[in-house]
Amino acid sequence: MKSFVFPEFEITRDEEKCGQCRGCERQCSFGTHTYDPLTDRLISDDYKCAGCQRCVIFCPKDAIVVRPTQSFYRPNASWSREKMDDLKKQAETGGVILTGCGNDKPFRIYWDHIVLNASQVTNPSIDPLREPMELRTFLGAKPDLMDISTTNGDVEIKTEISPNLMVETPILFSAMSYGAISYNAFRSLATAARQSGTFFNTGEGGLPKEMRQEFGKCAIVQVASGRFGIDAEYLNCASAVEIKVGQGAKPGIGGHLPGEKVSLEVAATRMIPVGTDAISPAPHHDIYSIEDLSMLITALKEATNYEKPISVKIAAVHNFAAIGSGIVRAGADIIAIDGLRGGTGAAPKVIRDNVGIPIELAISALDRRLKNEGIRNRCSIIAAGGIRCSADVIKAIALGADAVYIGSAALIAMGCTLCQKCYTGKCNWGICTQDPRLSGRLNVDIASQRLTNLIHAWSHEISEMLGGMGINALESLRGNRDHLRGVGLYEWEMDVLGIKGAGE
Amino acid sequence: MPRIRRELYNKEICACSIFGAMNRDGERFTGKGVMLAIANMHVRGNGLGGGFAAYGIYPEYKDYYAFHLMFTGNSPEAKRSAKVGFDAFLCENFDVVSDEEIPHSDEAVVSDPPLIWRYFVLPRKQGEEALLSDEDYIVKMVMRVNTEIENAHVFSSGKNMGCFKGVGYPEDIGEYFMLDKLYSAYTWTVHGRFPTNTQAWWGGAHPFSLLDTTVVHNGEISSYGTNRWYLEMYGYACTLQTDTEVIAYAADLLMRRQKIPIEIVAKILAPPIWNSIDRMDEKEKKLLTTLRMVYGSLLMNGPFAIIIGQTGKMIGLTDRIRLRPITAATRGEMFYLSSEEASIRLISPKLDSVRTPNGGEPVVCELNNIRTVLE
Fold first, then answer.
1. pTM above 0.95?
2. Is there a contact between B258 and A145 if contact means CB atoms under 8 Å apart?
C-alpha cells in the first residue's frame, strides 16, 4: 500500500562540502543515507529520517542539514498535520501508534509561569562562593517527635529513626531499565550517581550481577508489575527499593520490551529466556487495592530487614493526592510522583499525550494534602516528569518536593535528542538500543562525565538561587511557597499551586 | 471537595533592636532601665512597634494564667463588642479570678491604641479536654481565640509574667503602660521595631508569646514558609502575620512539649554546617545528623538575633552564620543581652564580662534559685 504520509524531516546536503566519506551512512541505523557508486554521491531518503541529528553532528564537513519538512497540508486549526499523519498511519496499519520520550504537547508548563524570590536590603543574600551552601537532603520517613534524654550533658536519642537515603544534591536519576536503555547508558547513570553522591534507579529490568557490589550503594532498585530480575540479593544490595505502580508517560498502562531487545545479558538480568517478550502487566496482579500495597511494602521491608526505605512510584492522575495519603499510611517512606511530561522508552502515543496531570500541580497538591493530614513527616516526595533545568528543580522543592528524579534530562546529557524513536531499538546515540554496534557508541567514561557535569552545574545553580533568596540550607526552601510567585496564571491554578501572583 | 484557596498572608519583614536584662538572684526591678537602654537604639526602630516582656510581675496572682487581650476595631463600640464576644467565650472555658483594663497613661505618644484588658484565669476543662494538660489546653484556647474570634487577640498567656506591646517607639510604649512605675520584674526583654512591608498594627509588635515563652526578634526568617507548615501540623496557627511567631511556637514545641534542652534546641534552630558535622566524632555526628534530618523544617534560615524569655530563664541566639549580632554582658548578678553594647553600657557603665557569641551558639542565663520565683 502506498503510504500517504509525509516525511517528517527533510535532509539537505551541501554537495560542495560533502567529501563522500560515507560517515552519515554508517551513523544512521535507520538507513537514511546510502552511497551511490555510479554517481559517487550520497543519497538521502527523507522518509527514513528520525530527525535525531546524529549524522549532522558527526559529519566531518558539516555538510548536512536536517529540519522539519517544508511540505504542509492546507493549514487547519483543528486538523493539524500531526493529527492527519497519525490518522493516515492508522488507516494504513490498523495499529496503535507507538512513541517514545515524554508528552510533547503544548500543555501549560507551570515552571515557566513561576518566578523566584531574591533578597534585597532587609535580608542579605548569601554568596555561595564564600559561604557554605547546603543541598544535602534525607529521603525517607522522619518521626514526628524525638525522645531525647540528657544525663549530665550527655545527650541520647531514644527514638528509632527509620532508614533514610542521604543525597548530596536533590537530583536523582529516574528509573530507566537495562533493556530499555543500553548497558553502557545504564552503567553511565550508575557511575555518575556514585560520583555525584546521589542515586540512580534501576527501573524494572533488574541490576546486572556484576554491578551489584560496585553500584548497589547508589542504586534504588525497582519492583514492578513484571517482577523482572528480583531476588534477595537484588533487593539487599541496593540502598532503597521502589515499587513501581505507575509511570507519568503511560499511567494505567504496562510495559512491553520486545523480544528483539532481550539479549543474552538482558535475559540473564531480567531472569527470563532470551528473545522472549518481557511484558509488565498494567496493574500489579497482587495489588488490586491499597491493603495489598501495604502488604507488599511490608513484605519488602521484611525481605530487606527494615534497613532500607521503601518508595512507591505513581503517576500523577486526577485523585492521586488521596492515593498518596493512602500510600503513606500503607507504610511507604518515599512517594515518587511522575507527571504528565514524564518520559518513556515506548508508550501508545494516545496515552502519553492525554493521560495524567502536570507535575507542578501534583507536587503542590500532594504536599498540601499530606500536611493537612499531619503526615507530611512520614514520607518524602520525589517529583519526576518534565524537570528541564536547575530552576525547575528549585521550584519543585519550593512547591513541596524533597527531591526530583530526572530522566529525559539525563539522557539528553548523554546525547539524546528526543527524536521519540526509542521504541524502535535503533537509537543512533547508543542509548535506547541493545544493538552492540550502536550501544558501543556510548562511552561510559565520557557519558558518565557528562552526567556528573550536569549534576554539578545544576547544583551550583541551585546554590546561587538559594543564596540569592538568603537561604543557606535547602531544607529551608522545602514547601516554602513564599519564595514563589505566579505570572500569567488563572486564580484556580494559583490556588492549586498555593502561590501568590507576582506583585501580590 | 471545595477548592482550598491560596493564602494571601503577609510575612512581615523588619529590622529591629532587642534588649534583655535579668537579675539572676530573682530580685525585681522596674522597667526604667530597659526603657532607657532601648531608647538608646531609637534609630534601629521607626516607631511602628515596640514591646516588653516582664517576668515576675504578678506575684499576687502567680498561680493563675495572666491573659493580656487586645480588642481592635475602628470605633470604641467595635472594641467593646469584640470584648463582649471574648468574655462570653472566656466564661465558658475558664474560671476568671480577676480582670481589669490594663492601666495606661494617656500622655504617651502612641497611635490608635486598642482596648487592652487583662484577665487572671484558671482553665475549666470539660469533656474530652479533661485529658489535656493545663498548658496544652491554654495553647489550644489561645489558638482558638486568635483564629476564630474577630478583633480579639491574646498576646500574653503565661503565669506571673506579661507582655506589653503596641505601635510606637518602645520607650513610648513603656510610658503608655507605665512600666517604669507600675511593674517590677526579674527579667525584662524589649523590642524596638522597624517594619518595612506591612501596615503596623498592635498585635504585630514584639514580643510574641505563648504561655510563658516570649520571643523578641531582630531579623527576617527566610525559611518562614517551611517553618510555618511544619508547626501547623502540630496545631500551631500562625495568625499574627509575622515571622517571629514561628520562633515562639518552635520554642514551645521543642522546649515545653518535647522537653528538649535549650542547647539542643539551638542546634535545631541554628544547626552547624554539614562540613563541621562531618568532622565531629561519631557520637556527636550521629546526634547532629539526626537532628537535622528530623528537624530540618525547623531550621531558622536568614538573619536573626533573638531573645527568648521563659520563667526563670533568658536565652540569646543568633542565626547560624551570625548575620545579626547580639552582645552578652554580665555585671554582678545582672545579665544583659543587646543588639548593641552601647545600650548596656548606658545603664551599666562597668561590666564584668562582655562577649559576642558565635553564630548558632546559645547564651543562657538562669535564675540561681528558681524557687525564689515559684514560691
1. no
2. yes
